[in-house]
Amino acid sequence: xxxxxxxxxxxxxxxxxxxxxxxxxxxxxxxxxxxxxxxxxxxxxxxxxxxxxxxxxxxxxxxxxxxxxxxxxxxxxxxxxxxxxxxxxxxxxxxxxxxxxxxxxxxxxxxxxxxx
Length: 116
Prior knowledge:
- The chain is mainly α.
- The chain folds into two domains: about 1-55, no CATH class; about 75-115.
- The protein is about 70% helix and about 0% strand.
- It has helices at about 1-10, 15-25, 30-55, 60, 75-95, 100-110.
- The longest helix is centred in the middle third of the chain and has 25 residues, at about 30-55.
């Protein structure tokens, strides 16, 4: 019933002071105001971050660089590649290593062929 009366009041007197005040109060919804505040806060934080990135302080530049650590878990494909690379390197070193002769081994052990 109240809406019915408001409808006719609005038709008969659309620009009365009471209607204008009600329209102003209703024009700002609380969720829109909350969103505006959140947007202002996000913009402020973005400006701070941008300012910090563009002009780092002296305290940060004096710090030594941090070491990059490997993750504790390594996928199987990466682990397999690492193992294969290590095996190839080990095989190359074994191929290039000098081959001991029988005489040098006998000398190391103190065995001589002359006494036999």
